[in-house]
Design brief:
The complex is a heterodimer of chains A (180) and B (458).
Chain A lengths: L9 E6 L2 H13 L5 E4 L7 H5 L6 H27 L16 H23 L23 E6 L7 H9 L5 E5 L2
Antiparallel strand pairs in A: 1-3, 1-4, 2-3
Chain B lengths: L4 H10 L10 H13 L5 H27 L14 H25 L9 H21 L26 H34 L3 H11 L6 H34 L11 H27 L8 H32 L2 H12 L3 H13 L7 H4 L2 H28 L14 H24 L5 H13 L1
Classes of the chains: A alpha+beta (180), B mainly alpha (458).
Chain lengths: 180, 458
């Protein structure tokens, strides 16, 4: 246990529609908070911009996966058909590349897709067996029709009383403490 | 541009909406998740599961007999070495392709109407590919050694022949299954979280909780999720085309008259989408009726799918026309005889039934009245499914029954075990579909919420 651990994990404000959430996210950021996140039952357009999130690394991971798949696919066939288990069929070249293209393509797609899904899950830190947010009973509505905005207690500007007061002024339906 | 409100109303009247009026985020969530969580399981579901379960037993018995007796229990022979097994394989995998088309290609084309049908279309893809993948393995002769198809280090020092389309097929179909499963599961994660948060019982909460992996709808997570989902759609699109192209290579690379033609890849892909949309309609029409989902799967969906069926059906008809034309134009005696044998030989009834089912009857869909009739679309879809199955039978069996030497001609007659295996896979497919609609949300709840927002802002 860290001694200087803040009393709560975060403060969580609940909103009833996505526009209120985006407006609140902008104000929170303008106020200078950086460790913030929002929770919504579906991807809200414009929310990531409002929160100031950078681009994701998912496409890069998929590209790397695709390149690995492509290299593995072709070199596996080259090595097996050309070196390890060569069969001479009417003197045709052992490295008969046109017929190696379909499997190279399939493995490129396979590796890209696997990297896309597991890369996304890894970046998101899923599976997460325990998360403090689920201690807030109303947070169950984040997967139905409510929109939440959180300011983490680790934020430099975070001060329990002031931050809570500020969040209440954002037009939230309710602001709750997220216990560990 | 100014729009007359009356004109606007007219336009809205003529195009049914993609989602019925008056829904909120909460009511969409409630309506879809209650099928899984709270509504009483209808008696008909148990009957359906029971009947399809019995057909699964039929399948297991057929496979058991096959393992002990060998492929001799089927009607295959030389020259007709590819019988029902390959017909069913191509038919099932073709059906699967509509699911990927709906979930991936229509996503990339930003077609909003895909939202309420993509989930069960993807489930259909998975289950159809499972049924499909079984057949080539059962057809191997010694199915217990199916893993020899993969390159793996072994003490025999033998490896697969990568220049053969049959090996390409192994990679294409297994990649297709894996990517479809990943795509489906990724789409399910937010909905599993919804089920976790709404499950009334502890056991269901724990199970959905484990499957949802702690999803909490964080904006950061959604950003990566959407990117990954979009890229998966972009990957699945060329994949689906490549899979059926490789399936058609199984035929075209051989020099058998009736198989060795360049039109096969595009015409196989079109045929796959044709039969797949027919299957989506055959599943969607009873489901929407039975579970009262007419507001989510609206007439707009049914009409759009009917139109896609009509369009792909015309591509398929063009394929039939061109392969017949090319047979004549090639001047090759064997090709010409092959096509004459199709039309006038011992299997002519199959060929003409195929033309009736795939080319003639679906033309009814040109008439608006029939496109708007759920019953008519349902019956035509069934006819197309039969037609596409006959198409594969014509390609596989009729092409093989006349060999180059007339002394090697033969006839194929399916046996009891041919039929029982085929009907068994239909049972397996329906059995898995029944389980799916009971335990997972058959419409993507998260995407429906997003659709409501888009519709409200449009």
């Amino acid at each position: 246990m860290k001694r200087n651990r803040p009393p709560v994990y975060a403060l969580l404000a609940e909103f009833e529609d996505p526009h209120a959430l985006i407006a609140a996210a902008r104000r929170v950021r303008d106020e200078g908070y950086t460790r913030i996140d929002a929770y919504s039952p579906f991807p809200v357009e414009g929310l990531t911009d409002a929160l100031g999130f950078r681009k994701t690394r998912v496409p890069l991971i998929v590209l790397i996966g695709g390149l690995i798949g492509c290299a593995v696919g072709y070199s596996m066939q080259y090595w097996i058909a050309g070196v390890y288990f060569p069969i001479n069929i009417g003197g045709r070249p052992l490295n008969s590349w046109p017929s190696f293209i379909p499997i190279t393509f399939e493995l490129t797609v396979l590796f890209s897709a696997v990297f896309a899904v597991f890369g996304m899950l890894a970046l998101n830190g899923l599976p997460t067996p325990y998360h403090p947010l689920f201690n807030v009973p109303r947070f169950a509505l984040a997967s139905r029709d409510r929109f939440f905005l959180a300011i983490m207690a680790t934020d430099k500007k975070f001060k329990m009383e002031e931050t809570k007061e500020f969040m209440q002024r954002l037009g939230a339906r309710e602001v709750s403490n997220v216990d560990y | 541009m100014e729009e007359n409100p009356e004109q606007r109303a007219d336009i809205e009247m003529s195009v049914p909406p993609v989602v019925g009026p008056g829904y909120t985020y909460a009511s969409v969530t409630q309506k879809i998740s209650s099928i899984v969580l709270t509504r009483r399981t209808p008696m008909a579901w148990f009957i359906g599961l029971g009947v399809s379960g019995m057909l699964v037993v039929v399948l297991l018995v057929s496979i058991g007999v096959l393992f002990t007796q060998g492929v001799g229990i089927w009607g295959i022979n030389i020259p007709i070495a590819w019988g029902f097994a390959i017909v069913n394989f191509v038919w099932w995998i073709g059906i699967g392709h509509a699911g990927t088309l709906i979930s991936a290609i229509l996503l990339l084309l930003n077609q909003k109407w895909r939202t309420s049908i993509n989930r069960f279309a993807e489930a259909m893809t998975l289950f159809a590919v499972m049924c499909a993948g079984m057949f080539p393995l059962l057809h191997l002769g010694r199915p217990q050694f199916f893993y020899w198809l993969f390159p793996y280090p072994n003490t025999y020092g033998v490896q697969p022949q990568f220049r053969s389309p049959l090996v390409w097929d192994v990679f294409a179909v297994s990649t297709y299954f894996t990517v479809s499963a990943l795509f489906w599961f990724t789409g399910l994660i937010p909905d599993l979280a919804t089920l976790r948060d709404r499950a009334p019982g502890r056991i269901s909460r724990v199970i959905y909780g484990i499957l949802a992996m702690g999803w909490r709808g964080s904006a950061r997570h959604w950003q990566r999720y959407e990117m990954a989902y979009l890229l998966l759609a972009g990957l699945a699109t060329p994949l689906v085309v490549s899979v059926h192209t490789v399936v058609s290579f199984d035929f075209t690379v051989a020099i058998v008259p009736g198989w060795h033609t360049t039109i096969f890849p595009p015409y196989f892909v079109a045929g796959a989408i044709y039969s797949g949309f027919a299957m989506v309609l055959v599943l969607a029409i009873p489901l929407r009726k039975f579970y009262g989902l007419e507001d989510f799967v609206t007439m707009r969906h049914i009409r759009n799918m009917a139109k896609i069926m009509l369009a792909t059906g015309l591509i398929v008809a063009y394929g039939y026309m061109m392969e017949t034309f090319m047979a004549w134009y090639s001047g090759d005696q064997y090709e010409i005889n092959q096509f004459l044998a199709r039309m006038t030989g011992p299997y002519r009834v199959l060929y003409w039934s195929l033309i009736l089912c795939n080319v003639l009857i679906p033309q009814i869909l040109w008439i608006k009245k029939f496109r708007r009739s759920v019953a008519a679309v349902f019956v035509i879809s069934l006819v197309v499914l039969v037609g596409m199955w006959l198409e594969r039978l014509v390609i596989v069996v009729i092409s093989l029954h006349r060999d180059f030497l007339s002394s090697s001609w033969g006839m194929y007659r399916p046996t009891f075990w041919d039929w029982s295996t085929f009907i068994g896979t239909i049972g397996l497919f329906l059995f898995l579909m029944f389980l799916f609609v009971r335990f997972l949300p058959m419409i993507s709840i998260a995407e429906m919420r997003a659709l409501l927002t888009e519709e409200a802002e449009a």
